[in-house]
Write a structure and sequence with these properties.
about 120 residues, Arc Repressor Mutant, subunit A, 2 strands, 5 helices, alpha+beta, two-stranded antiparallel ribbon
């Protein structure tokens, strides 16, 4: 099932469009889910916030679909190694949950999908 969604959701703001285009193409989003992610971008991009808070907010904005470490790194523009360390501490705290699901990275390797704990309630 191959769907193509219009990028007109963010056509009015080139910065949001650029960031939305960087979201992982490994999974397609329905227009409503994509709009929620696009609306969350300004809150997530605020570099004054701690990295762990930015990561937690991004994963929460992904909903039940969650995100991989690579997707987080690309979306909020933090180095992958920094994301890995922050994600580990967030998983240890119980803020993020590591699921059994896997998604392929751009290099074709399987990556664990993370989900915010609020979606498990």
């Amino acid at each position: 099932m191959n769907r193509t969604y219009s990028s007109s959701l963010t056509a009015d703001d080139p910065v949001r469009q650029k960031i939305a285009d960087r979201l992982s193409p490994m999974h397609k989003l329905c227009p409503e889910c994509r709009q929620k992610r696009v609306e969350a971008i300004p809150k997530i991009q605020d570099t004054r916030l701690p990295q762990s808070l930015r990561i937690a907010r991004y994963v929460a904005s992904c909903g039940r679909g969650g995100a991989t470490r690579m997707e987080i790194s690309e979306a909020i523009q933090i180095q992958y190694s920094s994301v890995c360390g922050a994600v580990k501490s967030l998983v240890d705290q119980g803020t993020l949950v590591s699921t059994d699901r896997k998604r392929l990275t751009p290099t074709g390797r399987p990556a664990t999908v993370l989900r915010h704990s609020e979606w498990d309630r």
